[in-house]
Amino acid sequence: MSAKKASKVEGGKLKLVPVHELIAVQMDRLGLDNPEVARRLGYSSPNVVSMFKAGSMKVPFNKIAPLAELLKVDVVYFGMCADLQGNLGLLPLLESISKRTVVTLNEEKLLVKMRNIADGLDVDLDERPQQLEVILEAFSQAVEKERLEHTLDVGRLKERKRSALLNADRRAAKQAEENESKAA
Questions:
Q1: Would you tell me which CATH number, out of the four given (2.60.40.3950, 1.10.260.40, 2.60.40.2230, 3.30.9.10), belongs to the domain 1-101?
Q2: Cβ-count burial 99-116 (b if 16+ within 10 Å, e if not)
Q3: For the chain, domain boundaries
Q4: How far apart are CA 139 and CA 149, in angstroms?
Q5: Do 98 and 104 touch, CB atoms closer than 8 A?
Q6: Nearest CA among 135, 116, 117 for reference residue 125
Q7: 83 within 8 A of 90, measured Cβ to Cβ
Q8: Cβ-contact 58, 64 below 8 angstroms
């Protein structure tokens, strides 16, 4: 699988995102900074986390579960996203272990809420297609809102990175001018 673009898992049609994007967005959403994440993962340098977020370093196999837990992301889903970048061979392994369609933590919450609302009844939605359409439409609207927020989060992070690079370039140019004027 390619690390450059999201992929769909055969059968489950679960859309995976590049793990570096998932890490950056979740850290931002949870208010986690690089030093804190590095410390909680057992790294002495926050640069490791910066490299994870930039996609320049693969998440090591032994850090997938702790990082997924820290970022509040389903470990199976996180592992599959990590496999996009690292071609670790995790996808077939995770699918064979789970022997089910992968369900993210948020999808699991939805199922639990549905079961609570049904109070133990297994309502056959095929017999009530209009009710199913109403439920799916409401869910579709919620997903579209979340997709928009995710896109905005990613765009905001990219803009911050561009801005930081521009500021660094300006500082370097100013320093070069000062060095030239001192040399003259």
A1: 1.10.260.40
A2: eeebbeeeeeeeeeeeee
A3: 1-101, 123-184
A4: 15
A5: no
A6: 135
A7: yes
A8: no
Ordered per-residue pLDDT tens for the chain, 184 residues: 333 334 444 444 567 788 999 999 999 989 999 999 999 999 999 999 999 999 889 999 899 999 999 998 888 888 888 887 767 677 777 667 666 666 666 777 788 787 777 776 666 777 777 777 887 788 788 878 888 888 888 888 888 887 877 877 788 888 888 888 887 6
* Coil, helix or strand at residue 106: helix
Q: Find residue 16's DSSP bridge partners.
A: 7
Q: Using alpha carbons, select from 17, 3, 41, 156 the residue that is nearest to residue 50.
A: 41
Q: Residues 71-96, buried b or exposed e (16+ Cβ, 10 A)?
A: bebbebbbbbbbbbbbebebbeebbe
Return the structure tokens found at 154: 């990613």
Q: How many CB atoms lie within 10 A of CB 27?
A: 21
- CA pair distance 162, 160, nearest whole angstrom: 5
